[in-house]
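Just scan my protein:

——
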Amino acid sequence: MGVRLARNMTSALRIQEMASPERPRERLIERGPRALNTSELLAILLRTGTTGASAVEVGHQLLRRFGSLEAVARAPLDQLVTVRGVGPDKAALLKAAFELAVRLTEEKRRATPLLDTPGSVATMLREELSLLETERFLVLLLDTRRHLIRIEEVGRGLLDSVLVHPREVFRPALVGSAHSIVVAHNHPSGDPTPSEADIRTTRDLIRAGQLLRVELLDHIIIGRPSADRPRDFCSLKELGQFYS
């Protein structure tokens, strides 16, 4: 009973009454936003609480009322104001903050290429790889929607060969928390037809990806167009080489 009473008294404290190091805004300034829980971040937006409840407690009530932060973000204004301590002004501020988050995500997606086809991969890499005189092996790290996170070079070879090991291919994927990868390399000869070594490497990578739970989506080989071969790249997945 005494513990419950103490907890209730703490939650009822106004933010101004908290010790300075415990105030959400001061903690964010000192330690960064990751140091705060969701209710405390909401409290910074709400700024003030209500009688008997601090802004942090109102943040708790929002999460309890709607069940999750996403549900709070989706809630219309007329539902947000039903939570005690959230009036029209605070509800509008919350909606504005969530809309900014949505626009930031959309902006980021527009800025990062969508690599959902072999052609989109080839288009992005063609200028970099097609005229090289030696082979280079690249790993493209992708998020859950197949947008590019970044590109890592993991192998550089001689005139017509490059050696890569699965651990070198998947290390950047694991470090970068990639959901899936596409691998790509160039053929300095200009002919993108895969060699037996290319096919063996692909199957080794497929098996490694299955063990590591990072899917290999495709292996793209970049070459150069010719009179009898207008397409300057090939996809081993399209060629039916994607089985372990």
User: Anything to note?
Assistant: The radius of gyration is 27 Å.
